[in-house]
Design goal:
Blueprint lengths: L10 H13 L4 H8 L3 H14 L30
Helix pairs in contact: 1-3
């Protein structure tokens, strides 16, 4: 049996998995199979998400963080295209 190499996941993937966990439509085992991730890893990502999500609604955005909207009024996703 060959040893599986360690993978690194990008932030968009981990956020997508954490949001799926928070929605609660699938069990932890189903999410593990769907995203090919360990259940402890998914639980950790959910905890990280809960810790950092408050920063989104914290103080106002810095001057460099403001992104102009496109002409059609909808924000464009930069990394999480589904």
């Amino acid at each position: 049996m060959s040893k599986r190499t360690r993978r690194t996941h990008n932030p968009c993937f981990t956020a997508r998995v954490a949001l799926a966990m928070i929605k609660g439509k699938k069990t932890l085992a189903e999410l593990g199979k769907l995203f090919d991730a360990n259940r402890y890893q998914i639980t950790g990502w959910k905890a990280q998400f809960h810790e950092s999500v408050a920063g989104v609604f914290g103080s106002g955005p810095a001057a460099g963080d403001i992104v102009p909207l496109p002409t059609d009024g909808r924000p464009k996703s930069t990394c999480c295209a589904s």
